[in-house]
Amino acid sequence: MTTEVEDGPAIPKAAPAQAAARYPKSIPSIIGNEACERFSFYGMRNILTDFLIGYLLLGLVEKDRAGAAKEVFHVFVMGVYFFPLLGGWISDRFLGKYRTIFWLSLLYCVGHGCLAVFEANKTGFYAGLFLIALGSGGIKPCVSSFVGDQFDQTNKHLARGVFEAFYWVINFGSFFASQLMPRALKHWGPSIAFGIPGILMFIATLIFWMGRKTYVVVPPSPADPHSFGSIAWTALQKGRGAGRVLAGLGLLGFVGSFFLIPTLGFVASFCLAIVAFLVFAGPGVLLSLEAARGVHPDEDVEGVRSVLKVLVVFALVTPFWSLFDQKASTWIIQGKAMVLPGWSILETASQMQAINPLLVMLLIPFNNAVTYPLLRKIGLDPTPLRRMTAGIAIAGVSWIVIGVIQRWIDAGEQVSILWQLLPYTILTLGEVLVSTTGLEFAYSQAPAKMKGTLMSFWSLSVTVGGLWVLIVNAGMKNERLTSAITAQTGLSTTAFQMFFFAGFAFLFALAFGAYATRYKSVEHYRKA
Fold first, then answer.
1. Which molecular function term from Gene Ontology is one that the record holds (predicted)?
2. Beta-bridge partner residues of 4
3. What is the DSSP letter of 296?
4. DSSP class of residue 4?
5. Cβ contacts of 187-190, under 8 Å, gap ≥ 24
6. Interior angle at CA 428, CA 133 and CA 415, nearest 5
């Protein structure tokens, strides 16, 4: 039968009988569901740019199609990683993780159906993208935290291995999707190419439902007068001085961002409004937090302080996502201008994305078995935040390489697409250090009542990464700016953007590393 448990407060590290600990019986169902769901998601995602350029956006003049496809792709990805806020809230307050995952998965299936049916209808196709963003994004914080809920203090040491297996199977599904779906689009057309991921999503939902009797289910939290939002509001009401000023600036930034809709569009402006509010209101709450003591329990006040400190970590990792997600847009567009070797298995530039999940599946066990033990032997402890710092910087290096390749193309050279193997490899190394680590880090740092919400903020960092891409792209539409870039640097606008994003990553890697030296990690797992 399904087991319901209550979350407990954070407990200091103990020394349980680890040898007797076992993996929860529910893990195979969760992992199987994730493998099929990830195939479905990456199957449609990895052909989206090609489909938009080659089918849906044919009504645009040719020179504008790639840019328009890139914007649609990143708006979609931003939605995927914005809706975890909604999914986390619904899960924590109303339905719980299991029911939220199940019902949103059904909407997810409908979205896939829309893509297959409305291949020539923009309204129907974009409705399908919306439903997939809602379903995939809404379940995202629930699934990862649902994995963590299966563990307690007696077997929490096994959680890291499962989180890494969880991430490994994501890439297992992504690898086959990246290889097969571009071929399906090329040979069989959009209906079948989008229909296959829809079938896999239905199978994923069925697997998840079949495992329902093995799950540990943490019920949703009741209405809590000491929630994160309540404590933050009390702090701002009772606080004085700088805290209120910063909160006011956040509100002004939120409202002011909507005036940029004519330039950035609604989605980017809305996301920028959220960022502007959090950047100012977050520190405002932190400065005023002591005023909430007495009204709210000290333990909950400290929980809010912990969340706010974690949000700084999430904010500093956003540039990594702006680099990482462009491998499915900017890098594909570059690949379409490169030469496909006749002897290789590559039929389209989109298939290069399969390199990423393949390397992830190899690097995760290699790092655990070789890299991390070796670093510890020489006195360098690869803590989660140190790994994430290195990962952001390494991603920047990959964009230096992709920028050099773009310069060869701009010079008129016939460049083999196999040159992209190098930046894909470097970017994947950065991904393993950031994403795999960040998933477990986000769960472990979350107070019991805020796990779904904090995991959704981890996903929101990806949305903000997409926001940086849209802002830069909007800037590149200014002819005066692009002319100045070309005149002063001798670079094409595409090459300039690539080197710009590399520098962006290096700058934030320095900031992330500086903050990491002062951050104190905590653990929040439920009681046995």
1. peptide transmembrane transporter activity
2. 217
3. B
4. E
5. 189/119, 190/51, 190/55, 190/115, 190/116, 190/119
6. 100
